[in-house]
Amino acid sequence: MGQETAQSNFRRGVTTLVLLAMLKKEDMYGFQLVQEISNVSDGKIVTQEGSLYPILYKLLDSGYISDRRVQVGKRLTRVYYHLEPLGEDYLRTLVREYRETSRGVEMILEASEL
After folding, report:
1. What are phi and psi of 2, to 5 degrees?
2. Where are the alpha helices (DSSP H) in 1-114?
3. What are the tens digits of pLDDT across the range 18-27?
């Protein structure tokens, strides 16, 4: 596996975790998710809409989230995403795995005196 693929998988995993966490707070539409992720992370996590939607579609297909369309104005329709109970279970699993991995990485860095 190349470095670019590993980094891409890592980012996709982190984005999945972040999206589910944001949707636990409230239902949101795509652009709103992008803005809120940036705002809440103080600009440390910046997501592009183009990379967000494939992850949202995968979460939809897996039953972790659902979507609903809302007419805004005469021509604009927004798609709001909602965290389903199955998605809440998945989020808890991802958070646990993330925290365990982070602790392991910190232990290795400390042992390496970095």
Report:
1. -75, 165
2. 3-25, 30-40, 49-62, 85-111
3. 999 999 999 9
